[in-house]
Amino acid sequence: MSDLIRTFSERGDLAHLALFLWAASSSGLLLFALRELAAATRRFDDFVRELSRFNERHVTRTGGRR
Fold it and tell me: How is residue 13 annotated by DSSP?
């Protein structure tokens, strides 16, 4: 990695290096955020499914409206 940085600094492409590092870190953060969003969606879906099961059992046992 230091060879890569040395090559960029010798050629005067520090702006390109900074832009690459910014783009790479932004892409990494985006992937992390999307992964967390997908996990939250799965957890919410599981919660709604369990809530539906609970409601079905409760209505059936108590003879509630259906």
Answer: -
